[in-house]
Amino acid sequence: MRALITGGAGFIGGHLAERLLKEGHRVTVIDDLSTGRFENIAPLTKHPHFHFAIEDIRNIHVTDRLVSECDVIFHLAAVVGVHKIITEPINTIEVNINGTEVMLKTARRYRKKILIASTSEVYGKGVSFPFKEDDDRLMGATTKSRWSYAASKAIDEFLALAYYQEVGLPVVLFRLFNTIGPRQMGQYGMVVPRFVQWALKNEPILVYGDGEQQRCFGNVFDVVDAIYRLSQTDEAVGELFNIGSNEEISILQLAERVRERADSASEIRTIPYDEAYAPGFEDFRRRVPSIEKIQRVTGWQPSTSLDETLDQMITYYREQLNHA
Predict the structure, then answer these.
(1) Annotation marks residue 163 as catalytic
(2) Which of 110, 123, 149, 317 is catalytic?
(3) What's this model's pTM, rounded to 2 decimal places?
(4) DSSP E strands: which ranges in the chain?
(5) Which tens digit of pLDDT belongs to each residue from 225-273?
(6) Domain 2-180+218-246+288-303, classified CATH 3.40.50.720, yes or no
(7) How many CB atoms lie within 10 A of CB 234?
């Protein structure tokens, strides 16, 4: 199989590229490195079946050629991170919607299977738990840029499903919940890498809000396994799936868990949202996925505990600090 990964130099994309190469497939990555890091794919550049292009996916000349040469597309490219979403709402909307539009049009031109990454953000202020793929959604006001990312990814889903229903394009959609693991960076607001790095430096661990908001954190290797299985399952075409862990924890408990496992002397501080982001910032109290559908269709289920994942990240960042 010849795979094209958009956003392939990102945290998840880099791990997916590794997995595909290990499975014996050929991999091409396209990434403009706006949030992706070349370091995530640098070790792969020596592999004879790996190729990469540093380019924006909206460059239709480059994208057309790469799609024509592949068998399947993994479309992961998007603006990521709460901070970027709040500070760059125009770029968020344009990259997410226009980028997906380009990929779908090009996939249709060459009749290529395309798997598209969406997000748990699409559920918005959902109040029915766990979140199921066909749940109704409740979005915040359009005056809050916080919700532009969720709205743009929902448009991506509508458009992708329209391509499947109207012209029969083989499309698979998956909503990613919080995904963590080695190589994840914290500069765009990702909570666990920041907690781990603060803990290893014995610096204060800053928890935004009251810390009682609850999340589920999936291991990146488990998530990549789920994505790969979807690519190999014909029954997944035309469908939407949640991917994530259903092991729930509050952010305050998470900070305490990181401190404990890192054997850290850090203190834990809570910071009001208005100070962390901007006045009027809206968050959600719980976010937990139903993974029944993907289990039924592919047999996948998460196999790595949160503690194991935290240990992986602590080991990774400790090595990074020792070599700094």
Answers:
(1) no
(2) 149
(3) 0.95
(4) 2-6, 26-31, 50-54, 72-75, 113-119, 171-176, 179-180, 205-208, 214-216, 218-219, 240-243, 248-250, 268-271
(5) 999 999 999 999 999 999 999 999 999 999 999 999 999 999 999 998 7
(6) yes
(7) 8
